[in-house]
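ugh ok so i messed up the first submission bc i forgot one of the chains. this is the corrected input, ALL of the components this time, i swear. 912 residues overall. if the numbers dont match what u have on ur side tell me asap before i send this to the collaborators (the ones from the other lab, u know who)
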Amino acid sequence: MNDKEVELLLVEDDPNDVELALIALRRHKLANKIHVVRDGEEALDFLFCRGSYAQRTFNGPPKVILLDLKLPKVSGLEVLKAIKDDPRTRPVPVVVMTSSREQRDMVEGYRLGVNSYIQKPIDFDQFQAIIRELGYYWLVVNQCPPPESFPAALPPLQHKPGP
Amino acid sequence: MGFQDQSIKRKTMAVIMLTSVAVLLLTAVAFTTYDLATYRQNLVRNLSATAAIVADHSGPALSLRDKKDARATLASLRADPRILAAALYDSQGKLFIGYPAQAPVSTFPRTPGKSGYRFEGGRLVLFEPVVEGGQRQGMLYLKSDLHTLYARLRFYGGIALLVLFGSALVALAISNTLQERVTRPILALAEVAKAVSERGDYSIRAQKVSSDETGLLTEAFNAMLARIEEQTETLRKDEEIRSFLAAIVESSEDAIVGKDLEGKVISWNAGAEQMFGYAAAEMVGQSITRVQSPDRPGEEAQILEEAKRGRTRHYETVRIRKGGQRIEVSLIVFPIRDARGDIIGISSTARDITEGKRAERLIQESRARFSGIIASAMDAIISVDEGQRITIFNEAAEKMFGCSAGEALGQSLDRFIPEQLRQAHRRHVAEFGRTGATTRTMGNLLPISGLRVNGEEFPIEASISHIEIGGERVYTVILRDITERKRAEDQIRRLNAELEQRVAERTAELTAANKELESFTYSVAHDLRAPLRHIDAFSNLLQEDFEAALPQEAKHYLANIRNSTGKMSLLVDDLLNLARVGRQELRRQSTPLDRLLDEVLADLGQETAGRKMEWHIEALPAVECDPGLMKQVFANLLSNAVKYTRPRPVAVIEVGCRRMNGDTAVFVRDNGVGFNMKYADKLFGVFQRFHRAEEFEGTGVGLATVDRIVRKHGGHIWAEAGVDKGATFYFTVAGLEQAAKEEQQHISA
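and heres the new structure output, hopefully the right one now
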């Protein structure tokens, strides 16, 4: 799969969850341009075109990032912060999908600029329904600005404290 | 006013006047008498002569009895108008003829009287014999008027009166002039005397006018005045001194009493009145024993005896005041002597020393008390004089320094001060003496120590005070051996430090444990739910993707797996909720319980669908509570009520507010299956279930959560129930009682 054509970046460490997500996406014909990264570090390497993803450019950002919160090495919220702190990645929509019911995670996620926050339901039928709606919305319905319009320069990473 | 009382001037005048008038009067009387006598003799002589002539002429007529001739003779008498009547009697004594001829016979005497004259009724009557030829022929009668005599008398009287009056005037004028000379000095003297007596001014002197007796009198009078003036001055001075002394006696607060030798009071001053309560009038003349104390009989007699012997004595005794109150007095009794040195009286001066005595007793008591305090004090008390020599060394000091008072007294305080501190101590005391302060704590900044006789140094706490006694400064230090306290303090400090250390450790442990717990619940939330999801998802996939290949039994097992994952999911959620309730801070706000109840009822719609429900909801007050948590309470209790009434054809559920056991409680009552009260104590435990899962679903966490929320709100929860008799849950919340009362008042208003 060509990295440049990635439409959906799935950041998930649990192979079961990866599999279930892919099953759900596949069942709804949304699994064509999916890239899976297994921890926060890899996710950042991918997005900021470094490490093993150094050959990537900022010209082909994914249409949506599905981000789990509990990740090895760099946590989901840290990844979110890095994405939203950098003007080059900030326009990319991020949807947090988590099993956590911790309210503070949701609050923090929105503070950092998450575009959507979804709790994974235990019931698989409900999970499939959510994946379907989510895929359609972000990949088909939602419109993103073209990558050329993203600020190209790398300004110092300035964190703006949220509300 | 009698003559005696007349002024000397008048008296003199009267004397002169009376004398003059008397002399003149006597002279006039003598002169008149003489003149009258002479004139009468002349009258008689003239009439006798006339009678002799007439008798001579009448002799022939009578002898011839010739009336005509006789009448003619008598008629010649007309020449003398003084002759009032005349007659001729014959020798037989018969009236021969009368004159005046027409006069009635009665005018004449019937018979002639004896020859001679006589004064008869203011007339001079004369009988003259008529002789003719030596033969007596008859008698001649003549009656003469004395008119001229009286006229003469009147004339002389008038003259005499005139002379008298004139003389009197002259005498008055003369005496008036002359008597002045005599009476003036006397009157002047009298004036002076009057002035002296009226004004009491003895400095006036009479003026000496002459050197006669009046002059002598004036001199004597003046000399007398001078003497009087002198004596008056002496008297005045004496009086001044006397009143001066009297004032001193009167002004004295001491009772000063004069007595005679028998003890009778002669004088009694204001001080005595004040002290003994008797007025001077009550005491003067009375015996002094009246104020003598009855328990000291004979005392006064003894005092008198001593004074009579001429001794001055000082006594301290007791007197009795009017009304019976005892007074302690200090008495000075001394004899009073007259000019010759004889003892004539006794003076006693009493001073009330009751207060003084009381003060003295108080001082003694207080001294005794202080000695007691000092002796029994736990602290060492040491007094030193200015030379640092010990003057007081109490028992505690003996014990503290291991030195008897006998040894310590008179010694220098240095003996009990470690050598290195002596200098500093002296400086401190000297500086303290200079400041105005009278007490000060020592060793505030630096620890000070004492030195026992055995050479041991020990920490002390000290305060110092100084007072001046008789001009000498006395310093008193109060010392406390704080060896033990220091040790205890050190130990406390050490223990405190250890305790703090331990607390810090425990706190850290606790914090760590809390963190762990939090991350545990977080893990539960995240990590336990994930495998559950996976189990559910894969069993679902298995069921869906391989439905045809699976035997019926396998499908049943898969259904069981999915059912269990559902239950576990609920359980995990409930447990997480319980944990969250435990650590969540209450966000109290005034919340109408009615509104919470409405929200809960709305949420229950799904559970009650298709069932016959009968709700009895009473009005509930608004209380201060965390609305989110309080809603959970209602949600739990109502969903339980709905759940356990499921077997009833009609579920009856009541919600209200009641006064229970002196408190106000909200209750939720149902007509459900109820439970056995013997399990009531387990009702609010975690995972406690009274029903089998097939009968009523549930995790056994709900009531535990409710209990926790209610307790967090300062209330408590309990239940009443019976098997198949329904259940009633009651809970209280802090502030509910007050809120319910206000609600009640609001309604009744």
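quick check: The interface with chain A takes residues 522, 525-527, 529-530, 532-534, 536-538, 540-541, 565-566, 569, 573, 576 of chain B (CB under 8 Å). that seems consistent at least. The radius of gyration of chain B is 80 Å.
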